Amino acid sequence: MHLRMSLFSRSLVPMSPRHALLFCLLLAAFELLTYVASDVVMPAMLHVVRDLDAPSSHVPLALNAYLLGGVAFQWLIGPLSDRYGRRPLLLIGAAGFAAACLLAPWINDIHLFQGLRFVQGIGLGFVVVVSYPLLQESFPETDALRLMAILANIALLSPLLGPLLGGLLLDVMSWRALFVCVGALAILTWLGLWRFAPETIGVPRTEGGQLAPAPLHLASILGSYGELLRNGKFMQGSMALGLISIPLFSWIGLSPLLLMRNLGLDATSYGLWQLPIFGGLIAGNLALNYAAGRFDLPSLIRLALLPIVGGLLLMAAGTLASGRLMALIPGMVVYAFGMGIGNASLYRLTLFASANGKGTVAAMLGMISIAIIGLGSASLAALGAGASLATFACAASIPVGVALWPLWRLLKQETVAA
């Protein structure tokens, strides 16, 4: 307990340990809700398409629309937060997300529903571009990495329990009521962030100095983005982060079809099969919390690649041999464990690959990685990855294989620099 509280006593902006703790919990709550809007809703998508008289092809599209919404305005959110501060942009994002969720019960057309999913996904963009840099700028590197791992475990309650909870809630309420609940919780989170979220731009820092607001000019914004596109380390990290995440997000989008439609599982059984996978992700984050002070970032990424690649190979081999769900799950668990170690490590390494304002860097990082995740997941779905477990297992391994090249280039540069 003393170790955990000590993390909050070393903040780089003036706030008490209690204030820092509540801020981190509320930040995790906002991130959790943006995941809940996906994970709790996905089991309900078969109800949504039936209620709105739409084809089942709209089931994975709901996730893709959400992800694309997350990437659409990051190019603007990042520079705005560099200029006007993280706090006001964070509050705007949380308020907009709450409003979009509360509008969902009034929708009666599938295309309007998908459009609203896009709007809800914009809230995810604020998490990536504002919340993450705010946390990274508020604490020293090792503490920030550990806090990212701890808060990720809180946020992972959504993919861990969301599908099961969504299946259980659908027995007592409609999908429309689910959105009302998420919207109400988002309003409560907004109130907490309004009270406890600090500012890191233009305020004195405990180690001296301050992060100056960046000028907001179109030419400077385009220049910063152009510089990032020419930054080899940044681009390699951004592309790799998106590519290694595709199997997990494809599973979230396609598992309702694979498990409920193809295998005939009910919503509760569907949720139970998600538990070991996202439990593996949580275990990986706990391992990262232990290893953060013992290994540098490149070593953590190399360590993570072993279970990421090994898990996908195990999944593909087992599923091709038997075609059974029990052959797929162990490989996904091992892969998820590796993602728990590698995701935050690769994000931190990529975020600080450039000296530009972290809002702008996080925006470009989010745009590239989420666009790759969304387009990659949509491509796997279009190629028939939802047709069978074996097809999914083989298709999901391809993007990670592609990611090995930019990762090798990135880690080679880090080795030379060291």
From TrEMBL:
<feature type="transmembrane region" description="Helical">
    <location>
        <begin position="271"/>
        <end position="291"/>
    </location>
</feature>
<dbReference type="InterPro" id="IPR005829">
    <property type="entry name" value="Sugar_transporter_CS"/>
</dbReference>
<keyword id="KW-0813">Transport</keyword>
<feature type="transmembrane region" description="Helical">
    <location>
        <begin position="361"/>
        <end position="383"/>
    </location>
</feature>
<dbReference type="GO" id="GO:0022857">
    <property type="term" value="F:transmembrane transporter activity"/>
</dbReference>
<keyword id="KW-0812">Transmembrane</keyword>
<protein>
    <submittedName>
        <fullName>MFS transporter, DHA1 family, multidrug/chloramphenicol efflux transport protein</fullName>
    </submittedName>
</protein>
<dbReference type="GO" id="GO:0016020">
    <property type="term" value="C:membrane"/>
</dbReference>
<dbReference type="InterPro" id="IPR036259">
    <property type="entry name" value="MFS_trans_sf"/>
</dbReference>
<feature type="transmembrane region" description="Helical">
    <location>
        <begin position="118"/>
        <end position="135"/>
    </location>
</feature>
<feature type="transmembrane region" description="Helical">
    <location>
        <begin position="239"/>
        <end position="259"/>
    </location>
</feature>
<feature type="transmembrane region" description="Helical">
    <location>
        <begin position="147"/>
        <end position="169"/>
    </location>
</feature>
<feature type="transmembrane region" description="Helical">
    <location>
        <begin position="389"/>
        <end position="408"/>
    </location>
</feature>
<keyword id="KW-0472">Membrane</keyword>
<dbReference type="InterPro" id="IPR011701">
    <property type="entry name" value="MFS"/>
</dbReference>
<dbReference type="Pfam" id="PF07690">
    <property type="entry name" value="MFS_1"/>
</dbReference>
<dbReference type="InterPro" id="IPR020846">
    <property type="entry name" value="MFS_dom"/>
</dbReference>
<feature type="transmembrane region" description="Helical">
    <location>
        <begin position="175"/>
        <end position="197"/>
    </location>
</feature>
<feature type="transmembrane region" description="Helical">
    <location>
        <begin position="327"/>
        <end position="349"/>
    </location>
</feature>
<feature type="domain" description="Major facilitator superfamily (MFS) profile">
    <location>
        <begin position="23"/>
        <end position="414"/>
    </location>
</feature>
<feature type="transmembrane region" description="Helical">
    <location>
        <begin position="89"/>
        <end position="106"/>
    </location>
</feature>
<feature type="transmembrane region" description="Helical">
    <location>
        <begin position="58"/>
        <end position="77"/>
    </location>
</feature>
<feature type="transmembrane region" description="Helical">
    <location>
        <begin position="303"/>
        <end position="321"/>
    </location>
</feature>
<keyword id="KW-1133">Transmembrane helix</keyword>
